[in-house]
Every structure is written in structure tokens, then in C-alpha cells.
């Protein structure tokens, strides 16, 4: 039986680099975002998670779907999948670590091995679309 971890993620690009975050005690970086609360829309969850994690305010009217990527979840038993539903959006404020976030970095395609399997699929798509250096 497959277990699914369903997450939303903010694809924040700057000068061909993707914003990545790392939680305390974790090895790999991930795309900022998280799980929806009961009854929450993707837009509401994205805005809440990004404000909690990075002290940045998403402009809801600018949220656009980018893609959904699914792969084996990092550090979980075989068969536990993570689904990343990714969105782009404009935001207000300079990202800085908050809540459970230990570090944030701007990642390039060369950093692909520093992210989870689902994030690697996103990296491949961004590279294919000419958005990630």
C-alpha cells in the first residue's frame, strides 16, 4: 500500500536560482511550503506556510500553478510518496529562516543532489523550461 504525503510548494526563482530551505536536523534542502490545514485551499496554505517559514507575504492574486511532482519521500519507508504541488507567486519581504527552518539558500541545477527526489523532478522541469541555471 502506498502512503501519500501531499504538500504545496513555492517556486521562487531569482537570476536562474531556486530558493531552497532546510529544516533543523535534516540533510536535504526542500522547496518552501508544507501541508494544507483541514479546509484550507492551496492558495491559503501556500500563503500561510511561506509566511511561517520565511517571513514573506505571498500576493494571492499572483499565484500560478507550475506543476505537480511525485516521488519516494525522503527518510521515509519504501512506498511512502510525496506529492509536491508547485506554485509561483510574487511576494513581499526578504526571505529569512523562521519557525523550523535552519537555513535558506539559492540553488542551481548543480545542487540537484542536495534536494529530495520529488524536488529533483522539479529541478529537471525548471531546467527543461530554461528557468534554472
From TrEMBL:
Its cofactor is Mg(2+). Keywords: Hydrolase. Residues 1-128 form the Nudix hydrolase domain. PANTHER family: 8-OXO-DGTP DIPHOSPHATASE-RELATED, GDP-MANNOSE MANNOSYL HYDROLASE. This is NUDIX domain-containing protein.
Amino acid at each position: 500500500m502506498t502512503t501519500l504525503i501531499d504538500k504545496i510548494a513555492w517556486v521562487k526563482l531569482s537570476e536562474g536560482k531556486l530558493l531552497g530551505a532546510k529544516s533543523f536536523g535534516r540533510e536535504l534542502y526542500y522547496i518552501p511550503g508544507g501541508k494544507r490545514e483541514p479546509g484550507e485551499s492551496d492558495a491559503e496554505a501556500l500563503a500561510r506556510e511561506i509566511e511561517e517559514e520565511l517571513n514573506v507575504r505571498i500576493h494571492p492574486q499572483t499565484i500560478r500553478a507550475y506543476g505537480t511532482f511525485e516521488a519516494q519521500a525522503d527518510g521515509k519507508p519504501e512506498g511512502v510518496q510525496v506529492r509536491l504541488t508547485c506554485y509561483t507567486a510574487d511576494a513581499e519581504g526578504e526571505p529569512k529562516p523562521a519557525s523550523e527552518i535552519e537555513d535558506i539558500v539559492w540553488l542551481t541545477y548543480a545542487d540537484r543532489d542536495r534536494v529530495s527526489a520529488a524536488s529533483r523532478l522539479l529541478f529537471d522541469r525548471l531546467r527543461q523550461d530554461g528557468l534554472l541555471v
